[in-house]
Amino acid sequence: MENIENLITGSWMVAGDFNTITTVDERSGGSPPITRNMEEFNEAISLCGLSSLEFVAPAYTWTNGVL
Fold first, then answer.
1. Which string of DSSP letters, residue by residue, matches 4-54?
2. What percent of the chain has pLDDT over 90?
3. Spatial distance between the Cα atoms of 29 and 11, rounded to a whole number of angstroms
4. Mean pLDDT computed over 20-27
5. Which are the contacts of 48, defined by CB distance < 8 A and separation ≥ 6?
């Protein structure tokens, strides 16, 4: 993202399944999140001038069948 940010002159949107999260609230269960990865991801988002869109739906849409 940081490599192409300067090439884009208009609005842009980035979407995907990133392998890190922006806050610990985005994680449920599993191993603890790696703080440094979150810091680097948030820094990249900030440097690129991106912001999060609101998501209106169930917070977690995937399950492995274990409740």
1. TGGG--S-----S--SS-SSGGG--SSSPP-HHHHHHHHHHHHHTT--PPP
2. 18
3. 35
4. 88
5. 1, 2, 5, 14
